[in-house]
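Quick one: structure for this chain?
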Amino acid sequence: YVGADYIFQAQLESYQNPTHTLETGDCCDGDPNAMGVCTGSCNNIFTFCIQESNATGNNLALPLCPFLRVFSGVFQDNDDISFDEDLGNGVSNPLTFSRSGAWPVSQEYVLVSFPGQMNWE
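Got it. Here's what it folds into:
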């Protein structure tokens, strides 16, 4: 272990979902049109997580996120996002995580982002 203060930062630039679909392939907003094309944009929210890359007991659907877990605000009806310094919900861009103390230098850490659809029903 190495004892030190450390800071992790990640700058978000953009997100695009030109097909307006969920990860399942379904349309975000209603049914596809007669041509089979999804036309309604998604209400996107993002979960950001810092965890060990080899953390046991984790999966991408429900990560443990022991170091950082934050949720963006909702980007309503927006599938072509250029992020600025405010991600909503009190989250600043770049994402910044700082700590003091031991850093296990043998471990790799990853920032995982999960875009999701907010349903307003």
